[in-house]
Each structure stands twice: as C-alpha cells, then as structure tokens.
Design goal:
Layout lengths: L2 H15 L2 H20 L10 H24 L3 H15 L8 H14 L7 H6 L1 H12 L5 H13 L3
Helix pairs in contact: 1-2, 2-3, 2-4, 3-4, 5-7, 5-8, 7-8
C-alpha cells in the first residue's frame, strides 16, 4: 500500500481514536497531497508516488520546525506545544534519518573523491555550499539538512 493510501486510511483511525491532533495533521497532509497533484498538473483523484509524498511530508515538517522556532522567539509556548505535537505525528511518516556519524563517513569519502582535501583553508570554506550540495544530492532526504551542514563544516574545518 502506498504512503498516500496509508495516510488517507488513517483519517478514519484518528476519528475512531478521537485523536484530534493526529486527525488534524493527517487531514492537512491529504490536502497538501491534493495541492501537490494540482500543482503538478495532475488530477486531484490521482495518487502521489511515495517519494513525492515524502517530499510533501518533509516540507510540512520543515514548516513545523520553523513555526516552533518563531513561536519560541515570540514567547508563545502554548503554540510551541501544539506545533511539537503535530511535528511528532508527522515524523512518524518519515523514514529514519541518518546520524551525524553516518553522515560524517559519507562526507569524508566525498571530500576525498571531489578533491576538497587538497584545497587550502580559505578555498575550503568558500566551497562549503558546494560541498553541502554534493552531500545533499548523495543523501537524497535520508539526512536532515542542518545535520549535513554541521558535518560538512566540521569536515572542511579540518583543512585549517
């Protein structure tokens, strides 16, 4: 069963369990899936492929994290708690992300493969964006972008 179908079926489960947070999140995801289909010029009755559905879920997770950050800065702890509850539901649909140690192994290999190890320190720092891009392309959503950037900075800072 596809991720899209699984999430649609969980609307009924959330209703029966009287889980309002999960119900709201799942309904929001189904609406986001429909919006994505329409944006891609497809019929709303079609289904997204799993990779497309995961992209929509990742976008929702990123929105929740940004909201949590903004609400925390604004002192709205009541809203932070509701966003964290929604984030917890969303993260259940994502595959497990890689740890920083796993990312570091790939980053070390890519550093050598693309010749970043031979660059002097200032050039290494200037190439951080390029290096992060290479890593993100390699990891394709299996790792959090913030973790990838932190590992990339740590790996390239060894060039000093």
């Amino acid at each position: 069963m596809s991720l899209n179908t699984t999430i649609k079926s969980q609307i009924k489960e959330a209703m029966l369990a009287k889980d309002q947070v999960r119900l709201m999140v799942v309904r929001g995801l189904v609406a986001a899936f429909t919006n994505e289909l329409v944006a891609k010029g497809r019929k709303p009755t079609e289904e997204l492929a799993d990779d497309e559905a995961l992209a929509v879920i990742r976008r929702s997770v990123k929105q929740r994290k940004d909201s949590i950050e903004q609400f925390t800065a604004g002192g709205r702890m009541d809203l932070v708690e509701s966003e964290k509850a929604e984030l917890a539901v969303l993260e259940k649909y994502l595959p497990k992300t890689m740890s920083r140690d796993e990312i570091r192994k790939i980053a070390e290999a890519k550093k050598a493969e693309f010749g970043f190890a031979d660059l002097p320190a200032p050039a290494g720092k200037a190439k951080l964006g390029q290096f992060v891009g290479i890593l993100m392309k390699e990891l394709k959503g299996r790792a959090d972008g913030a973790d990838v950037k932190a590992v990339a900075e740590a790996v390239l800072s060894k060039l000093d």
